[in-house]
Write a structure and sequence with these properties.
This protein is α/β, with parallel strands linked by helices. Helix content is 31%, strand content 23%.
């Protein structure tokens, strides 16, 4: 079994929002709520859920772009929030992120090769010539041509800009790459190219991925295990095959039910769930207001993320019985 590369323990992130000009009442948002998660070395862990469920906040905490309200993130057994300046710099070299927005994540005043070699400059790796050669090498690896090196971001298509972002993330030879919705803004045909590229790069560079998406078809293609998030919590965690063929949580079933199918022979019972995510309950299950299977226990007792079988976990009192 693969060893744990990253572990989160009771990870929490709260944001306090003001009530606005006409109200002094403040609101607390639990963006990440008691998340225990393990990313195994060499795997692709997919994280899915609706917008606002805490996926990107989780990524920011693991990359230490945000500090938690409580809890730990351990990288190879060490708490990343206890790092000194030098240890943090080393950690950032080992953990890189690919952003969703290919426009705002790239500097419009720098050429492609300048952006790709910038991490090498920051970490003072190699001479100027060696950095340039390394940047051109990684450009070729992600499918960009040498003659495109001195072009600026506005001269590239969306897919090409994302290839620049991938090259920039890989130029330091990281161990973990966090991909935050990396294909959501691209055309479907380009999405397939980028996903195939990421799979090939994983093999070539022995990478570990934390892959965030709201698209279950994308996650189905690229992930090994899948974590389902709802209102900051992990409500189900299992192998990809189990998630798609034997979903345990009603929210997982809702997400799968919403995935369109091109097969006219495929007839599955759609789960109709009313309401929107956003109302946090003080007691009981956070999904109770939208769940068609709700029982009395769901309104009083919050279900923990419990072990269902050897590799499946679910936070539902009715797991396996619905």
């Amino acid at each position: 079994m693969s060893s744990a590369l990253v572990e989160t323990q009771k990870l929490n992130k709260k944001y306090i929002l003001s009530g606005g000009f006409f109200s002094s009442q403040k609101r607390i948002i639990h963006a990440v709520n008691n998340v225990d998660l393990t990313i195994l070395k060499g795997e692709t862990l997919g994280v899915v859920g609706e917008s606002g469920c805490g996926k990107s906040t989780l990524a920011k905490l693991i990359t230490r772009l945000e500090k938690p309200s409580a809890g730990l993130v351990n990288f190879k057994g060490e708490n990343i929030f206890s790092y000194d300046k030098e240890s943090l710099k080393s950690y950032r070299r080992n953990v890189q992120i690919i952003f969703q927005d290919t426009y705002s994540s790239l500097n419009p005043r720098k050429s492609a090769v300048s952006m790709i070699k910038e991490p090498l400059t920051i970490h003072r790796l190699g001479s100027g010539k060696e950095r340039n050669e390394r940047a051109l090498e990684i450009m070729a690896k992600v499918g960009l041509k040498k003659e495109q090196a001195n072009r600026y971001s506005h001269e590239f298509s969306g897919g090409q800009r994302q290839r620049i972002g991938i090259a920039r993330a890989l130029v330091l030879n990281p161990e973990l790459v966090i991909a935050d919705e990396p294909v959501s803004s691209l055309d479907v045909s380009i999405q397939a190219q980028i996903l195939n590229l990421l799979r090939d790069l994983k093999k070539d560079y022995n990478l570990t991925y934390l892959f965030i998406s709201h698209d279950l078809n994308v996650i189905r293609y690229i992930a090994d295990r899948v974590a389902v998030m709802y209102l900051g919590r992990i409500v189900e965690l299992a192998l990809k095959g189990d998630i798609y063929h034997r979903p345990l949580h009603p929210y997982t079933r809702m997400l799968l039910s919403a995935v369109p199918s091109c097969d006219p022979r495929k007839k599955e019972r759609k789960i109709k769930i009313k309401g929107e995510a956003g109302a946090e309950n003080t007691e009981g299950c956070s999904f109770q207001n939208r769940c068609p299977f709700k029982k009395e226990i769901c309104t009083n007792v919050e279900p923990p993320l419990g072990k269902f079988d050897e590799q499946s976990f679910c936070a539902c009192h009715l797991a396996g019985s619905i």
